[in-house]
Design the sequence.
């Protein structure tokens, strides 16, 4: 049986003898062939070469073509900041100063921006490996695309102008449909709508603004006769059931989510779940044995292994050692043999010393933002953006720091402080927002109370 068929069986809720494995190797694919992130996201030949390397080395049941949530945003007028080791990030928001909705004539066309590049890569991969490997086309989800266009003010709009938010989301859903059709026609087997900002809103806001457009979107994918995946990074636990109610074939979650608990919900709705190998603590910084043990643990924690797709929690970091990607493949393809290999495995804990601020002795409020990486993770970027904007408004009245979960020191810092979910905001050492981006007014109110308390105390 081909790897592609194993994945299809999992998506059809059939029993599989193997755990299907999908490496979300976006920019990391470039590392395998000595290309940086910008090269693989702007050059079709470089992207194709990198994707073939992923297929050859990691033996996936399925793989994405490109993990870049800014392709649509770039076409629609967002300026991008490019990186050598990560996908580009959005620098400017064309709707930041105007509450308008673009007209349908601006929807992405097959000839716009970098769309021709990813479609060419899809067609070439279909011919090269499509008989054995399922191909994923990744599109930017409506809520994240709306955030790219509107900026952080979108989170205030949720309260202040519901009609505007609905109109903008309808437009962004049409963008997702358009991109999905292009991918399907080029040969993609699975369309994943990647919407990390969904993890940053309440269940009430999800059901108010997103249930209808996502339900319509997944119905559209069924009409295209492709499988669907609802891919959300961050702590989306509170919205897993609402996501299932929009009727995707599968959802994909990251390490912030309790996978067994989420799978009990997805099984109830007949939805396959994918995830959730930790990106940095395991894939980036772990040993091969650490990685294989993580795969075993994920599998063993599940009450049953059907309706499950093994995958990283989000886009793999560029610098993940190739041997760690191979280790996941080894464990997924040969689970019991791997179990025997690791029978004497003992995890080694590195003793990394970090010093936390003297929170009791602060002279002014300290706002700390803990992110996976605000430069590459959209949810983290908007959380950090909210914090940085508040710092700009309050100036020297507060101190501010961001800690990215990409270094061993910051991983140790998160453990010492007890940070459980990313992104999170802490004020004076206390959690104030976890995977929930505050509106500017709400954050200013919380910080203002703290500023006043310090002023009174002095």
Sequence:
């Amino acid at each position: 049986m081909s790897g592609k068929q194993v994945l299809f069986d999992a998506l059809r809720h059939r029993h599989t003898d193997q755990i299907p494995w999908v490496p979300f190797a976006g920019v990391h694919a470039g590392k395998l062939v000595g290309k940086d992130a910008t090269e693989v996201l702007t050059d079709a030949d470089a992207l194709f070469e990198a994707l073939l390397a992923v297929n050859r080395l990691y033996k996936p049941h399925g793989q994405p073509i490109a993990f870049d949530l800014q392709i649509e945003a770039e076409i629609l007028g967002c300026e991008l900041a490019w990186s050598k080791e990560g996908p580009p990030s959005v620098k400017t928001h064309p709707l930041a100063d105007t509450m308008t909705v673009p007209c349908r004539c601006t929807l992405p066309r097959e000839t716009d921006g970098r769309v021709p590049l990813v479609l060419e890569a899809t067609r070439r991969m279909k011919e090269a490996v499509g008989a054995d490997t399922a191909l994923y086309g990744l599109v930017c989800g409506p809520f994240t695309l709306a955030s790219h266009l509107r900026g952080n003010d979108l989170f205030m709009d949720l309260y202040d102008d519901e009609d505007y938010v609905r109109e903008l989301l309808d437009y962004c859903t049409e963008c997702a449909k358009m991109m999905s059709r292009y991918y399907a026609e080029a040969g993609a087997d699975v369309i994943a709508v990647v919407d990390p900002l969904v993890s940053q809103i309440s269940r009430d806001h999800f059901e108010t603004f997103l249930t209808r457009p996502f339900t319509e979107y997944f119905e559209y994918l069924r009409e295209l006769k492709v499988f669907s995946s609802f891919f959300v990074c961050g702590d989306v636990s509170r919205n897993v059931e609402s996501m299932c109610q929009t009727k995707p074939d599968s959802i994909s979650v990251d390490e912030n989510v309790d996978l067994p608990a989420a799978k009990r919900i997805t099984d109830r709705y007949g939805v396959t779940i994918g995830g959730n190998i930790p990106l940095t603590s395991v894939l980036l910084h772990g040993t091969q044995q650490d990685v294989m043990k993580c795969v075993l643990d994920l599998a063993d924690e599940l009450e049953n292994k059907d309706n499950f797709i093994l995958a990283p929690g989000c886009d793999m970091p560029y610098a993940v050692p190739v041997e760690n990607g191979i280790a996941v493949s080894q464990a997924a393809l040969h689970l019991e043999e791997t179990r025997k290999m690791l029978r004497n495995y003992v995890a080694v804990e590195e003793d990394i010393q970090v010093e936390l601020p003297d929170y009791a002795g602060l002279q002014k409020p300290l706002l700390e933002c803990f992110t996976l990486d605000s430069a590459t993770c959209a949810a983290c970027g908007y959380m950090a953006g909210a914090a940085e904007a508040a710092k700009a408004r309050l100036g020297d009245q507060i101190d501010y720091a961001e800690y990215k979960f990409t270094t061993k020191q910051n991983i140790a810092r998160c453990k010492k402080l007890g940070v459980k979910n990313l992104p999170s905001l802490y004020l004076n050492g206390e959690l104030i927002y976890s995977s929930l981006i505050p509106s500017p007014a709400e954050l200013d109110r919380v910080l203002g109370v703290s500023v006043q308390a310090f002023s009174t105390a002095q």
